[in-house]
Amino acid sequence: MLITDYYCSRLKTMSFSDKESGYSLLELGITLFIVAGLVTSGSILSGSAVSSTKRSETGQKITVTKADLQRFIIVNDRLPCPDSNGDGVENCLGPAFGTLPHLTLKLPGEVVDSNGNSLLYAANSALLDPTAITPASWDYSGISLSGFCKALSSEMTAVFDSAEPAVAKTSSCNGASGALNPAFILLSSGLADLDGDGISYDGINANVSAGTSICVENPDKSGTNVYDDKVEVIGFAELFGKLCLASDDKFVAGPG
To answer: Mean pLDDT for each consecutive 10-residue tract of the chain (256 residues)?
Structure first.
């Protein structure tokens, strides 16, 4: 028999005189203490379970979004530009970070995390529409998957560029400290404003949402009592492996 069952049974069977005795009052106090503790523990566990579920849901949405972006590349031979004004359409001359252009991606609605907050998105300019960017990022004739793969191949060996979206190394956005440029970034604000600065994004991600930085926290950064954002990035080599090595439109190395 559980200890709580024992004390609950005692409460039911105690006579009036029992309840007036010191021992019965002690039992009553212990029982109430145990019950209160169980209720509190249950609330904490319930809250933790909800948080875990929401983070899992956000992770699943990000996985689906990555697949949507890869499908867009296959059809359009480029990544979409961010949506900088919330109209659902890409803006290739806007800021580096924006929301996902769901209309450009032909998605049914705005892409949000499990808390209903929009996912932020940025991509390296070398992988966006070359005709909309001055100077054009791709040096080849016409748009093709081969051209996109050449751009990926070139960026794999490029030096760190502070003008491009970046991923920090141990909260440092300095290339000399190990920060790097990925192919694209997806950023969720997590479940709460844990660092208490009034911005739903935590750490240096708050600067990204404010438009004062294009460098996000490292995806491997662990959650703490002041950080619960979720960062997902795809590197140039990973994207090259997924789309170029097994492509029917064979990648051919070389200039032009």
So the answer is: 51 50 66 66 50 74 92 91 94 92 93 86 89 50 76 92 94 90 93 69 90 94 85 94 71 40
Residue 151, Cβ density class (10 Å: 0-12 exposed, 13-18 middle, ≥19 buried): buried
At position 42, the amino acid (one-letter code) is G
- Residues 6+ away with beta carbon under 8 Å from 181: 124, 155, 158, 160, 161, 164, 165, 166, 167
3-state helix, strand, coil in the chain (%, to 5): 40, 10, 50
Structural tokens at position 45: 């566990």
Q: Using an 8 Å Cβ cutoff, are 109 and 123 in contact?
A: no
**Run of H or E residues at 56:** helix 22-76
Q: Count the neighbouring beta carbons within 10 Å of the beta carbon of residue 198.
A: 7
All structural domains of the chain with their residue ranges? 57-243
Chain-centroid distance of CA 10 in Å reads: 52
Rounded CA-CA distance 77/71 in Å is 10
pTM of the model: 0.73
